[in-house]
Amino acid sequence: MTRKREGTAELTLIERARRAQLIEVTIELVADRGYGGASLAAIAERAGITKAAVLYHFPTKAAVVRAAHQHALTALVGDVAGAVEAADVAHRPAAYVRSMVGHLREHPRHTRMIIEAMVHDDGDHDPAARWRPLAELVSAARVARGGSADIDARTTAIIVGGGIDAIVAEQLHDPDYDTAAAAERLIEMLEATLSP
């Protein structure tokens, strides 16, 4: 195993650029062909390099898919976190919904990458990692509006997360679906829970 793979050596500028290219190519292939269509050979072909060169940077298909998935998630989390932090506490759940739906609408390939990677990953996923941040926003918003924190924020967050998933899935099947209007409708329903 090379020192780079062990994480003990710094990647060169060229190596970082090649890894970034391979991540983008993997996102494109997974979005266009699904997980099965993103073979190491297909990634190499689309990147214009050999399969051995792909393996130099990523030891397996699973590794490059994980890196692509992480790249898409990092972009999503960054956008959502920025929008949430820019909003006042009482309106952060709405900012979360708008930014989540908006980002996924603007980045359909990232959306497909996230979905495909989650479906094909054998890892253990903690469902709380998905609902807990929104549940905390819901509780804080309710208190900021003068209400009690004694609401079922977990269930609210799970329902809202499911609504976001359904809106995004509909847009993937029908690119003309008005996800912005759907997000606003979901926010209206959420507002009823947040009002004291």
TrEMBL record:
InterPro entries the record matches: Homeodomain-like_sf (IPR009057), HTH-type_TetR-like_transc_reg (IPR050109), HTH_TetR (IPR001647), Tet_transcr_reg_TetR-rel_C_sf (IPR036271)
Task: Extract the DNA-binding region annotation as residue ranges.
Answer: 39-58
Q: Which PROSITE patterns is this protein grouped with? A: HTH_TETR_2
A Pfam family found in this protein is TetR_N
Keywords, in A-Z order? DNA-binding, Transcription, Transcription regulation
What parts of the sequence cross the membrane?
none
As recorded in UniProt, coiled-coil segments are none
Domain of life assignment: Bacteria
SUPFAM superfamilies cross-referenced by the UniProt entry: Homeodomain-like, Tetracyclin repressor-like, C-terminal domain
Where does the HTH tetR-type domain lie?
A: 16-76
The name on file for this protein is TetR family transcriptional regulator
Record organism: Micromonospora lutea
* Lineage of producing organism: Bacteria, Bacillati, Actinomycetota, Actinomycetes, Micromonosporales
